[in-house]
Amino acid sequence: MGSSTTSSGNGIIVNNKKISASSARAHTRKTNQNSSFQLSPGMLRKLIGLFFVGILSYAYQAIQPPPPKLCGSPGGPPITAPRIKLRDGRHLAYKELGVPKESAKYKIVFIHGFDSCRHDNFAKFLSPDLVQELGVYVVSFDKPGYGESDPHPKRTVKCIALDIEELADQLGLGSKFYVVGFSMGGQAVWSVLKYIPHRLAGAALIAPVANYWWTGFPSNISKQAYDLQLLNDQWAVSVAHHAPWLVYWWNSQKWFPSSSAIAHNPAVFSTKDMELVMKPHWQSRMEYAAYIRQQGVQESLNRDMILGFGKWEFSPLDLANPFPNNEGSVHLWHGDDDQLVPVLPQRYIVQQLPWIHYHEMPGDGHLLHEAEGVADTILKELLLQKK
Fold this sequence. Notes:
InterPro entries: AB_hydrolase_1, AB_hydrolase_fold. Residues 108-371 form the AB hydrolase-1 domain. It comes from Cannabis sativa (Hemp). Pfam families: Abhydrolase_6 (PF12697). The protein has 387 residues and is α/β, with parallel strands linked by helices. The chain has a single domain, classed as Alpha/Beta hydrolase fold, catalytic domain (Rossmann fold, 3-Layer(aba) Sandwich), CATH 3.40.50.1820. Helix content is 39%, strand content 16%. The strands form 2 sheets. The protein has an 8-stranded mixed β-sheet with strand order 4-5-7-6-8-9-10-11, sandwiched between helices. The chain is globular.
């Protein structure tokens, strides 16, 4: 049965019991308060904490790169290239051009640049007649994580030099060989000059990338060169140097423009570069563009940036002449209209290292070796110049 409520005089009768009006009002207020949801300070702190945990969890997931898709693994890209197995178990894919190495007079190891692979070999731009006349053999290889070479998450600046030495030994290139590197590959030549100079017959750096944080650079030189980059490239190299753990997120996010090289931004091409990228070999390059990154960008592009602009164990400006008795030579080539890699640091480096033969190309951009006849000139200077 239900309860009955009636009013009587100064009170209210509830179930035949009379209570005062003030007691009834207090009872009503308490009932209304209990019926509304109230957040205690402790519960509010917990909710705020959960919110920030959620934000941090999302941010952590955003900066974590996916695992690489290893060549030959289930679901991974197929193995199509010849490869050597290195002493640490990794594989290095390579490509041979020129005359057979058994009959070659000159043997060259070529190091490709950023977002490239073993197919991007400067030997493609050499005159076939010159290659045959001189007896030149060139081997290029996919750097770790690129193409079909296994990633190397613990890679250091020194590792590329040791990989090259082991590649040369397994292919039987002899006690001495030449190295040529372009762009980020040119930067890697500094490591070769540091760690295996005794294996070199000569070296050439073509438009090598400079690290603005190398010790020995005067602050005005490094800052001026840094400021010559596009703003998005300034941000990209700064992230690689100061926050390498953030590189994957930075290069994959859509809020801010990332590296021009990754985005293939034509704004970094000089007038001559633009003419070169319209040639057929650039169109055919698009056929294997996906191949370059097929194992994932973290262990290829991002790792290159982290190493290239991170803290080095040495500075190229402190290197000693690897050929004190003029038994070989080192050459550095750079276009003075290079919009991607400013020429300014190279001018300072060669002042400090006068044993380097410096060739500055007026009006040329970053792709200077692809212009007609330039690769031949680079080759002849490296191999035939009087020591």
